Fold Restriction endonuclease.
Amino acid sequence: MARNFVLPKDWYLSAVTDLVDNTLPSVLGELTAENAWSYVYAITMWSQTVDGTEYLHIIESDKLKTKPGRRLAARAADYLAKHLVPGETCNPFELVDHIGKAYIVERANQGFRPPEKKRDPNITGAAFETALQVLIGKLCGVSPSRTPPLRSLQGFELAPEGYHSRPDLVLFGPRDFRLLISTKWTLRKERVGTYLHESYFYRRRRPDLQIAFGVNEFQPNILWHLSTDPLVDRVYHVNKTMLLELYAPFADLPPGTDIPASTLTSDHANAMAYRRWMRLHDRLFDLTDMFADITMLMNKPDQVLGPTQENGEAEEDEDDMAL
């Protein structure tokens, strides 16, 4: 009977810890809160080929089949070529997907060939969760529990078995459950409601629970829906600076160009691009904020997280990737 490939117990934690401790510092520099995003990308980011061209997977695969999606991914590659490695230009395609490479090595060690599919979504999800878990442990001095049994958590001892999936990352322990971080590399718009329903479930049973999302999503309308929902306290983006640069309004104009005031009001394209950028700027947080918030909550148990700005008008659902 043919045997199946099985990862060793705690393989993701062991593999990611080894990458953070031994492999990546010589390439990316010693780990800090400011460069933690590059560690996440080097570990978790991967690429796929569409019509003979390789693109970074910063959006769902179906979006990469569209011209706006491919243009966005190409600009992301240009950004990472300049910023992924401090002080030098690099080929980002050569430096990402360390977890995928480690996965292939583990398969080979067990006598299996590389997987036929480019990337199993479960690998991306597990790698992203574990990368944040390890980085939080290194930078904050406290390691989140990853996917603990729901009924082991304070306030959820009597939750119906199997009613909800296990939470992704939990701080500061089963008996001191105060912060839940749901990790999503990318999000489909039709799934946002499901994630918010889960948040509703947690909040109903524990009104004091802080609920945050860690994401690498690059579609502004999805980020807007998530970050403005009253059930979500914070949305942390892996690289908010990169997100803002990719959607910077007027980026195609020479520096110092005057923008007619009449184009910054109503539904003019300039106005919509600028409002979209401001919403991303005002509503999202980055990984440095996440590390600071965790440290603050650890030191001040009564502290409450929350958005820095009040909700504004509804986000337009225009083609978000039009740059």
Remarks:
- Strands lie at 47-50, 53-56, 145-146, 169-171, 179-184, 210-215, 234-237, 285-286.
- The mean pLDDT is 88.
